[in-house]
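Bumping with the actual sequence this time:
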Amino acid sequence: MVGLRIIGGTLRGRKLQYSGDLRTRPMKDRVREAVFNLIGPRIVGAHAIDLFAGTGALGLEAISRGAARATFIERHLPTLELLKQNAAALGVAERCTANFGDAFLWTGAFVPAGGTPLVVFCSPPYDFYDFRREEMLQLIGRFEQIAPSESVLVVEADARWDFGQLPQPEAWDVREYPPAFVGIYIK
């Protein structure tokens, strides 16, 4: 097992298990730290949604930094089981919902409850931005539409993705952390 860690918050320094499976590409620690520094206190009390969750590092980091709860979507069952083990080992399983399934299908059916702001993490395999481009545009566009006020969308991509093709491209704060590009949208 390869080790990952929680960067900040109440669980800072705690380890996450990661199998090293090539289907899972965790966001690099330095990028994750930069993202959470940018979204700062907006995470407190929010509902974190970790699409393409993998290890769950983004959603678990959000819990550590004050998110009220986190929902994880992962389509690889062994990886989802490892995510559940990570949440249990951190003592936060009761604040986490782990869903086995396809993030595109899940997003199409998701309706936010109440006015609780969302913090949506979209960090799929980079190839999705190429061979599933239209589905990625629909997924991100749906969250732009349905997310309550004060919600945050965090999208990690590589150089193949053009944030300018999204609705309201001027509203995205795009940063480069080679080879990643991270776009943050605040509704």
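The tokens above came from a reply further down the thread. The mean pLDDT is 93.
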